[in-house]
Design goal:
Blueprint (H helix, E strand, L loop, with lengths): L3 H4 L8 E4 L13 H5 L5 H17 L4 E3 L7 H10 L8 E6 L1 E3 L11 E3 L3 H15 L5 E7 L9 H12 L3 E6 L4 H9 L2 E2 L2 E2 L3 E5 L8 H9 L3 E5 L14 H10 L3 H10 L6 E4 L4 H8 L8 H8 L5 H9 L5
Parallel strand pairs: 1-2, 1-12, 2-3, 3-6, 6-7, 7-10, 10-11, 11-12
Antiparallel strand pairs: 4-5, 8-9
Helix pairs in contact: 3-4, 7-8, 9-10
Length: about 325
């Protein structure tokens, strides 16, 4: 598996990845985007910002980069960066298929992305991804699998994915929604010719939403690499929106709320890679301090009280506007 490359890395930040959802398109649901990005969100400006973030992340030991077909031009921006740096051969690149970006590079589109887990969408988007990333692509994930997703039962799709795996591509899936644990367990049961199909899982887990933890532990035990997304709860765990308990612990550690929130995830024994969704270099630098945060039992107890019911968490997430 490509993630074996991370096992040989010596920097404490190697288990923090950089996701490009927030900078690959002008509109997203993260809080604080007006402050972080300003008004100029042209393709050129966001490409330059993405490359600046990738340079900073790589220089500070980050080795996993996460994009998706629906993250605007994220694959293109990452491909441009990789092509300009052919000597960089120690990163792991993951992308996702299953959503089509439909916003037309605007932040106020009526529909920003359309979900479809059909074989036809896989083949179309796989070709689009291959054209941009080629053999730099290590991991291809089904985007946002839920328990009712046809991707869990489509044998033709499974055969196509197994064929890609046989050619050296790692196959994974991501989850979303209040039934993440159910989706993870269903995906773990998918086999082709008696062999498990999926080798990675990417799920939402953070101080507010912990419901997938038991299933993610099972996935880890089964040999999958677990990637954690939305560890900052789309900005709800960052200043100035962070809950008072998190602000208090951050003050005690002399670091930011974001670093504490990410550290809480990093300490989970099943967490292989935890994604930063930083939109600025300063945010990234603050996020990376998570690797050195040491939380005591009292602090952990106070942070544990922040957990919300999954339905409540996902309903609130669904109400976040596209900025």
């Amino acid at each position: 598996m490509p993630f074996a490359r991370l096992a040989t890395a010596t920097t404490p930040t190697c288990h923090i990845g950089l996701g490009l959802a927030a900078v690959g398109r002008p509109g997203y649901i993260n809080l604080g985007r007006d402050h972080d990005l300003g008004e100029d969100r042209s393709v050129t400006t966001l490409r330059d910002r993405t490359h600046e973030l990738l340079d900073a992340a790589y220089a500070q030991g980050v080795r996993y980069f996460d994009v998706a077909r629906s993250y605007g031009r994220s694959e293109e921006f990452l491909a441009d960066w990789l092509n300009a740096r052919p000597d960089i051969d120690d990163v792991v690149v993951g992308s996702k298929w299953g959503y089509t970006y439909t916003a037309g590079w605007t932040a106020d589109a009526e529909t920003h992305e359309v979900k479809d887990h059909s074989v036809q969408t896989y083949e179309r988007q796989r070709a689009e991804t291959d054209e941009l990333l080629g053999d730099r692509l290590d991991l291809y994930q089904i985007h946002s699998v839920t328990p009712d997703s046809p991707a869990l039962t489509d044998k033709e799709l499974h055969a196509k994915l197994a064929e890609a795996a046989a050619q050296g591509l790692t196959i994974g899936f991501s989850t979303s929604g209040p039934a993440q644990a159910e989706a993870v367990r269903a995906a773990l049961a998918v086999t082709v010719d008696g062999e498990p199909l999926f080798r990675t899982v990417q799920s939402t887990y953070n101080a507010l939403e912990t419901s997938a933890a038991p299933a993610l532990a099972e996935a880890h035990e089964a040999g999958l690499t677990v990637i954690v997304k939305e560890a900052m709860a789309n900005g709800r765990l960052a200043e100035p929106h962070a809950p008072d308990a998190l602000k208090a612990v951050a003050e005690e550690t002399s670091l930011g709320c974001d670093a504490v929130a990410l550290a809480l995830v990093l300490r989970q024994p099943w967490a292989g890679v935890v994604l930063s969704g930083a939109a600025t270099v300063n945010q990234l630098a603050s996020n990376l301090h998570a690797a050195v945060v040491d939380l005591d039992e009292d602090q952990l107890t106070r942070l544990a009280a922040l957990v919300e019911e999954p339905d409540v968490y996902w309903e609130r997430r669904g109400q976040l506007p596209w900025h």
